[in-house]
Amino acid sequence: MFRFRILQSALVLLAALATVSALGCGGDTVLGNEDNTDQVLQPNDPANLNGRAYLLTSYLWRDFMPVVGDDSLHTSLTAAIRVAADDSLALPATLSADRIWVINGDDVWESDFIGEPYPLSDCAFECVARGGPFWETGITVDVVVRLVENGTEILVEASDVVIHRTD
């Protein structure tokens, strides 16, 4: 019985650590209109990095499916982004996306991505950010992502992205 309780406590602790890690503690910020974000959020046009153009697509949603337990962050905004090269050739192994900004009028959610990028193919990868604000579903926002390759950075943008609702 005693071993079972220790094992049960260890599993609860691991689950709590995984949840905290997945929520990206410390990496999220919602900036209001008092912050000067105009300079930071100017995407490169065209979005060329080391001689190649990149395309950004994004899917945003809030999950309203019922959950068991604490659902205090359950319905927060989640962002999935996909980066692909415009020329459909393989992406450089050193290319990464390290930061996201979701812009809703004067409000900006800034976050790191969770974990490693998920390769979709040789020419595209996907990243996810969780724990965003509780903005209304059905509205459109702009998404800006910072791409980095060998120390060189650019900002790419997806405009008029709808925040979806899952039930």
| Named CATH architecture | Sandwich
Q: Give the proportion of residues in helices.
A: 10-25%
H/E element order? HEEEEEEEEEE
Low-confidence stretches: 1-27
- Treating each run of at least 4 consecutive H or I residues as one helix, how many helices? 1
Q: Profile the largest sheet.
A: 10 strands, mixed
Radius of gyration: 18 Å
Based on secondary structure, the structural category is: mainly beta
Strand content: over 45%
The quaternary state of the protein chains shown equals single chain
Number of DSSP strands? 10
The N- and C-terminal alpha carbons lie at a distance of 40 Å
Task: Characterise the protein shown here.
- This protein is mainly β.
- It has a single domain, classed as Immunoglobulin-like (Sandwich), CATH 2.60.40.
- The protein is built from 1 helix and 10 strands.
- Strands 1, 2, 3, 4, 5, 6, 7, 8, 9 and 10 form a 10-stranded mixed β-sheet that branches.
- A hairpin with a 2-residue loop joins strand 2 and strand 3.
- The chain is globular, with a radius of gyration of 18 Å.
- The relative contact order is 0.24.
- Mean pLDDT is 79; it is low at 1-27.
